[in-house]
Design goal:
single chain, about 0% strand
Length: about 350
């Protein structure tokens, strides 16, 4: 009997790690005295700023690290999405007719829309009655509802709330998977990953072209392709020594590769590998006594957060808009704590609401 590379519980724990990074990053990077990230472009100024705060650590160091590195939860989600697609659709050949492809795309669009619309409607109402309202254009709203706003000019300012760019990205990757990579030879996936990375390296580090490039599927192809390959050809490692080595190597590489524009493109690979190693180390599938109980106390909360990750993703812009003034007035961690508590509680409620919306049929 073949052992799965990742169990369902481990996938949920990985989702928990990813969403914790994302929703804390999306709060901290809005604070002016905090280091800014290199997500869509690469700024050497941000790297130098990070090094300065690491040398002169103060009470803001946690917020600095969350702001600079937290957005790398997105590659973990892309990896898991690709992994899940292979496990769901490639064990049995569903066919490649135009009708089959249409049903696949329709199902996944509606699945994304079901999550997005609840958060988007709630956010627009909260945004309209709080300070600093966003001025929506008609096309911006239509583009968000149809999830093609990533391809419009100046995505930094038309996608609101900002994290919702992820829905357009996922829709593009679903299209790429079904039309180009479904049940194809590994060379197709590796080739597309390589092409996307090489083109990125040819763009100006702080240019608008790179910014728009990374808002779209090309910027997420590396971790997405890694998830496809891992699901098809990967093996589960049972050696704790190997996992510890991989985790430590990944932590070092996450920082060192973030210092250089060309190496920066490969940080998502190390993020995914390190996250997998960490989750398998704390997975309560082995050990006994005290060590097992310690694993469970870390693993099960992460697993639970993973079960509400979709709802937490769609609702956290709402709570951020409400609580971030507290942190901006100087009490950073009080505002952050209130934001965490409110976001988790609201996510649980949103999950219940989303469950009651009819699900699309595959």
């Amino acid at each position: 009997m073949k052992t799965e590379q990742l169990t369902r519980a481990e996938c949920n724990a990985l989702r928990g790690i990813a969403i914790i990074g994302i929703f804390l990053h999306n709060y901290c990077h809005w604070l002016n005295p905090i280091v800014k990230e290199n997500e869509y472009t690469f700024s050497q100024k941000n790297v130098d700023w990070l090094n300065q705060v690491l040398i002169g650590m103060d009470e803001k160091i946690v917020a600095h690290l969350l702001s600079f590195f937290g957005h790398y939860g997105v590659p973990v989600f892309l990896f898991l999405s690709a992994y899940g697609l292979v496990k769901k659709y490639e064990r049995q050949d569903k066919g490649s007719s135009a009708t089959t492809r249409y049903h696949f795309i329709r199902y996944h669009f509606l699945k994304l829309f079901k999550m997005m619309i609840v958060g988007f409607v709630a956010f627009t109402m909260v945004d309209a009655i709080t300070a600093g309202q966003h001025h929506y254009q008609f096309l911006d709203v239509v583009a968000q509802l149809l999830m093609f706003n990533n391809v419009l000019p100046d995505p930094d300012h038309i996608i609101w709330p900002g994290p919702y760019w992820f829905f357009g990205l996922m829709l593009q990757l679903y299209l790429v998977y079904r039309l180009l990579l479904y049940r194809k030879h590994w060379g197709w996936t590796v080739g597309l990953m390589a092409v996307c990375v090489v083109i990125q390296m040819c763009l100006s580090p702080e240019g608008d072209a790179l910014n728009r490039y990374r808002y779209n599927f090309m910027g997420g192809m590396l971790p997405f392709g890694l998830g496809l390959l891992y699901a098809r050809y990967g093996h589960r490692s049972l050696s704790r020594g190997y996992l510890w080595g991989l985790l430590l190597l990944s932590l070092c590489a996450d920082y060192l590769f973030s210092l250089n524009f060309y190496l920066w493109a490969f940080v998502p690979v190390w993020i995914c590998l390190g996250s997998i190693a960490f989750v398998q180390l704390i997975s309560p599938t082995g050990g006994q006594g005290l060590r097992l109980r310690m694993k469970e106390r870390i693993f099960h909360p992460l697993e639970w957060v993973g079960t509400i990750s979709a709802a937490l993703f769609v609702c956290h812009p709402i709570t951020r808009k409400i609580f971030i003034p507290i942190s901006r007035e100087g009490d950073i961690y009080t505002g952050l704590l209130l934001y965490i508590v409110a976001s988790v509680c609201l996510a649980w409620l949103f999950k219940e609401v989303i469950k009651r919306i009819p699900s699309p049929k595959p």
